[in-house]
């Protein structure tokens, strides 16, 4: 009987985790495949995405497989953006206000970042975080080092919320990798 | 009972999940509403050893901003401003709708993208007590009007663009010319209040590049005919009257280049604004008695330094230049160029609350026109 309860509970929770049905990947798969091809040199046809978990918030985690092996893990996440007329309020990162941006991060099997890419930036403010040049500094760093060393990369003046939200998303990715 | 307990636990878990998520599907979700405020209260005191000069204290503006995110792709934003304690304005009121990645449609009362300040005009975004002089006397901040256009960000190219068609400035209304040399177009802002559109809308656009390390640069343009009420009620076959009304219109093109750089505790900002009016400005001046110049140039460069890592204390210096008529080709040679020197300090005990003090030396190169102001004020943004 206890086992039945446990199974039912696990089923309910599983349903809650898997309700999104890969929405973010559907939106950005072409762009992500193109970036993987550019960064890793693997052609589109060789890469497949295996959904592992929809995350705590608007995020999706995938194992990225090639024909022969696992390339690593991918997180696609909708994170908090700076919003109307400002990005500096340090108390706002955890609020539920409505603006967002979408980001993809690919790590190898050891958790080292292969790329971080902003896929879509809706807000009028804080868009500096999406700069390709800025995001390059995340490459080759462990996705788990930001929890201990938030200054492992430079923040962006005038885009504090977007920066902190990006760091939070990497920490969430690290938690996922630890738990998987 | 055996099923209910885990089921309830599950519901609690699900509700917890939904509380952590922006709920775009629930159209009554309070989480999709956002509210912000900013305000400025200022004290200006001219320092004059020979003449009494009363100081001025002003509750310059208290502003509330409201936004509502209807869905992932659609939002409405509005900004209501109470100026000087008794004037109410709508500074922004627009719908922004994402058509696709990198392309959003925006329509309503829009801010004109020009230079550093007009779009980012909250007191935490500039160091001086009041907005920089160039952003008042040349760029008529807060410059806004009703229009429609597109905007978007290209992350891989590090570019943001904006392109709008907006109702232009009004240069002539109720028998009076509204443009003048000292503050250019400031008197001609329509502010979305029962505006006149007597010709074609104006074009306003901006391109910003943020791919440089710690630096952002932007190029802005505004071009169009000013509006007038002089055509109102004129028969279209009355050529002399229409020609006379034509003299109340000015065609202007304003371009701006701005740059911001933040390196550690150092901030460097610069801005260059150039406006040129078509030759009909001479007819405009003759008709209205105004003294608007053929062209205007305004520029400033400023350096600020935070004294501590928490960015509570900072000092800044700014040099500004404003030429009311750069190409002084007409007969009335009364226009001046102005040099301003500003320096001051900011104290920000907590993020979003500022105490400011500065000194501005006007026309320091001309002893007969030289004026010194000491200003102080507070600014909040939250």
Would you kindly provide a brief summary of this structure?
Chain A has 180 residues and is α+β, with helices and mostly antiparallel strands.
* Uncertain residue ranges of chain B: 7-22
The number of strands of chain B is 19
User: What structural class should be given to the helix and strand makeup of chain A?
Assistant: alpha+beta
Determine the structural class of chain B based on helices, strands and strand pairing: mainly beta
Termini gap of chain B: 49 Å
Counting H and I runs of at least 4 residues, what is the number of helices of chain A?
5
- What can be said about the biggest beta sheet of chain B? 16 strands, antiparallel, barrel
Strand order of the largest sheet of chain B: 1-2-3-4-5-6-7-10-11-13-14-15-16-17-18-19
Mean pLDDT of chain B, to the nearest integer, reads 89
What is the number of strand segments of chain A?
Answer: 5
Order of helices and strands of chain B: HEEEEEHEEEEEEEHEEHEEEEE
Helix percentage of chain B: under 10%
Most residues in contact: chain pair: A-B, 43 and 57 residues
Estimate the global geometry of chain A from the Cα principal axes. globular
Number of domains of chain B: 1
The coarse silhouette of chain B is globular
Query: For the report, how would you describe the main beta sheet of chain A?
Result: 5 strands, antiparallel
What percent strand of chain A? 15-25%
Gyration radius over CA of chain A: 17 Å
What's the multimeric state?
Answer: heterodimer
């Amino acid at each position: 009987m206890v086992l039945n309860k446990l199974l039912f509970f696990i089923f309910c929770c599983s349903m809650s985790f898997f309700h999104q049905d890969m929405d973010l990947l559907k939106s950005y798969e072409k762009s992500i495949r193109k970036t993987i091809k550019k960064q890793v040199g693997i052609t589109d046809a060789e890469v497949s995405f295996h959904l592992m978990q929809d995350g705590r918030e608007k995020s999706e985690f995938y194992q990225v497989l090639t024909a022969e092996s696992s390339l690593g893990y991918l997180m696609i996440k909708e994170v908090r953006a700076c919003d109307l007329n400002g990005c500096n309020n340090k108390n706002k990162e955890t609020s539920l206000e409505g603006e967002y941006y979408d980001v993809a991060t690919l790590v190898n099997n050891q958790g080292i970042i292969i790329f971080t890419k902003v896929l879509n930036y809706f807000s009028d403010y804080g868009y500096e975080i999406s700069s390709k040049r800025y995001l390059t500094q995340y490459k080759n760093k462990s996705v788990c080092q930001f929890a201990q060393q938030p200054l492992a990369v430079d923040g962006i003046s005038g885009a504090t919320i977007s920066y902190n939200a990006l760091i939070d998303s990497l920490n969430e990715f690290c938690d996922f990798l630890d738990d998987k | 009972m055996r099923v209910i307990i885990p089921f309830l636990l599950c519901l609690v878990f699900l509700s917890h999940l939904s509380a952590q998520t922006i709920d775009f599907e629930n159209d009554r979700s309070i989480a999709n509403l956002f509210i912000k405020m900013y305000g400025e209260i200022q004290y200006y005191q001219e320092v004059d050893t020979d003449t009494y000069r009363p100081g001025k204290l002003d509750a310059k503006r208290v502003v509330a901003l409201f936004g509502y995110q209807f869905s992932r792709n659609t939002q409405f934003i509005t900004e209501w401003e109470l100026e000087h304690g008794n004037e109410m304005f709508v500074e922004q009121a627009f719908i922004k709708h994402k058509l696709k990645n990198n392309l959003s449609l925006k329509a309503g009362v829009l801010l004109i993208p020009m230079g550093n300040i007009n779009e980012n005009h909250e007191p935490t975004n500039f160091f001086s007590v009041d907005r920089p002089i160039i952003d008042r006397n040349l760029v008529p901040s807060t410059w806004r009007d009703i229009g429609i256009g597109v905007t978007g960000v290209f992350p891989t190219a590090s570019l943001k663009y904006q392109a709008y068609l907006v109702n232009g400035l009004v240069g002539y209304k109720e028998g009076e010319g509204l443009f003048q040399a000292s503050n250019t177009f400031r008197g001609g802002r329509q502010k979305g209040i029962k505006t006149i559109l007597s010709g074609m809308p104006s074009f306003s656009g901006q391109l910003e590049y943020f791919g440089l390390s710690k630096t952002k640069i932007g190029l802005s343009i505004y071009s169009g005919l000013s509006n007038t009420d002089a055509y109102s009620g004129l028969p279209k076959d009355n050529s002399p009257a229409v020609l006379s009304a034509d003299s109340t219109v000015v065609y202007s093109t304003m371009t701006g280049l701005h740059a911001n750089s933040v390196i550690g505790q150092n901030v460097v900002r610069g801005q260059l604004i150039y406006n040129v009016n078509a030759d009909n400005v001479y007819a405009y001046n003759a008709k209205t008695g105004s003294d608007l110049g053929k062209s205007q140039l305004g520029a400033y460069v400023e350096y600020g330094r935070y004294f501590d890592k928490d960015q509570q204390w900072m000092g800044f210096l700014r040099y500004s230049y404003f030429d009311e008529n750069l190409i002084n080709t007409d007969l009335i040679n009364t226009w001046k160029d102005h040099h301003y020197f500003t320096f001051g300090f900011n104290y920000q005990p907590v993020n979003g609350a500022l105490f400011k003090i500065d000194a501005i030396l006007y026309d320091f190169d001309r002893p007969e026109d030289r004026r010194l102001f000491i200003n102080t004020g507070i600014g909040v943004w939250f």
